[in-house]
Amino acid sequence: MNDVAIEEKQNFFKELFSGGLRLVDVFWAGFIIVGSIIGLIVSKLTTLESLIVGDSLKSLYFILISIAVWKSASRYQGKKLWSILAKISSVLTILSSIFVLGSWAMYVSSN
Questions:
Q1: DSSP per-residue string spanning the chain
Q2: Cα separation, 12 vs 20, whole angstroms
Q3: Rounded to the nearest 5°, which phi and psi values hold at 43?
Q4: Half-sphere exposure (CA, 13 Å, Cβ side) for 90?
Q5: Is the Cβ–Cβ distance between 27 and 72 less than 8 Å?
Q6: Are 17 and 66 in contact (CB under 8 A)?
Q7: First vs last Cα of the chain: how many Å apart?
Q8: pLDDT digits (tens, 9 = 90+) for 21-31
C-alpha cells in the first residue's frame, strides 16, 4: 500500500472519530447499513466459538461507530431533534454492546 492510500485512510478515521463527517452519513452508512450487514453475518454463525468471536467483534464495532455517531451529532447544525435521537441511539447501543460483551465474558469464565 502506498503512502497516499495510508494517509487517506488515516484522515478518514481521524474525520470519523472527530465528528468531521456528516451525521447522516455516519448514522445511515456506518451505523445502520454496515451494522446490519455485520449483524446478518454474525446471525449465520453456527458454532459457539464463532458466535462468541463474531458477537464480540460486532459489539466492539457498534461501540466504535456509536462514538463516531455521538461526535457527529455533537457537531450537527440541523434540527436538534436528529442530534438528540442519534445520541440516544448511541447510548443505548453502547449499553447493549457492553451487556453482550459482559454476558459472553461471564459465560466463558464459568465454563
A1: --HHHHHHHHHHHHHHHHT-S-HHHIIIIIIIIIHHHHHHHHHT--SHHHHHHHHHHHHHHHHHHHHHHHHHHHH--S-HHHHHHHHHHHHHHHHHHHHHHHHHHHHHHH-
A2: 9
A3: -65, -20
A4: 22
A5: yes
A6: no
A7: 43
A8: 999 999 999 99
CA atoms 66, 72, 75, 79: torsion sign: negative
The whole-model pTM stands at 0.88
Determine the length of the chain.
111
Establish how many alpha carbons lie within 13 A of residue 16's alpha carbon, considering only the half-sphere containing its beta carbon.
Answer: 17
Residue-wise pLDDT for 36-79, tens only, equals 999 999 999 999 999 999 999 999 999 999 999 999 999 999 99
